[in-house]
Amino acid sequence: MQRYMKSDMPFHGVAKPARDVLVRQLPALTSRTEWLDVIRRLWREAQYREERYVALDLLRRYPRWQELDLLPLYEEFVVTGAWWDYVDELASRHVGSLLMAQRSAVTPVMREWAVDEDRWKRRVAVICQLGAKGETDLRLLSFAIEANVTDTDFFLRKGIGWALRQYARVDAEWVRAFVADHPELSGLSRREALKHIS
């Protein structure tokens, strides 16, 4: 697992199905303060990668406590996690949910992240709307992609293609036109974007 993830942090070797069973057996957390304390400690004091996975599992387990004030915590996890397994979970499930619930507050932050020096924050800005479907903010999506379209980073190129491919399920013509209008898109982004468009 460590070799597959190219991780400096070691693994216990607990696969996701077994981890899910263990997380479901944890005692319920009774306050938001306790929940945040547990998550922060799991993340910051982690010696094994699964401890950070459990922190993300606990974030997902208590959706009623997901509020705008968590955005700086998500940013911390994106920057310190700095790898696709953590970042994609945070982008699609957590940052994306906040964006959908608090567009006026989160959209400007995503525009800032789209041009940040940190490539993982930029990837979040690109893929944070994967689950938005017909509610996708096309101006934000276009801005995030265009801000990163010439970057040679594999994860950004892949993320751009993924975001476009996902939106193509809603509006394939928009994606086809976007790709045609952006010849500077990498081959990887282009292939991913058009993968399921006949």
Task: Write up what this structure looks like.
The chain contains twelve helices and no strands. It is mostly helical. It is globular and about 50 Å long. The protein starts with a helix and ends in a 5-residue tail after the last helix.
Radius of gyration of CA atoms, rounded to a whole number: 17 Å
Please tell me what the overall shape is.
Answer: globular
Structural class: mainly alpha
Order of helices and strands: HHHHHHHHHHHH
In which range does the helix fraction lie?
55-70%
Q: Give the termini separation.
A: 36 Å
**Proportion of strand residues:** under 5%
Pfam family, one: DNA_alkylation
InterPro entries: ARM-type_fold (IPR016024), DNA_alkylation (IPR014825)
Protein name: 3-methyladenine DNA glycosylase AlkD
Can you summarize this structure?
With 198 residues, the protein is mainly alpha-helical. Helix content is 67%, strand content 0%.
Give the helix/strand layout.
Elements: H1 2-5, H2 16-24, H3 32-44, H4 49-61, H5 71-81, H6 84-101, H7 103-114, H8 119-127, H9 138-148, H10 154-168, H11 172-181, H12 187-193
Helix pairs in contact: 3-4, 4-6, 5-6, 6-7, 6-8, 7-8, 7-9, 8-9, 8-10, 10-11, 10-12
Describe the structure using short key phrases.
about 200 residues; mainly alpha; 12 helices; about 0% strand
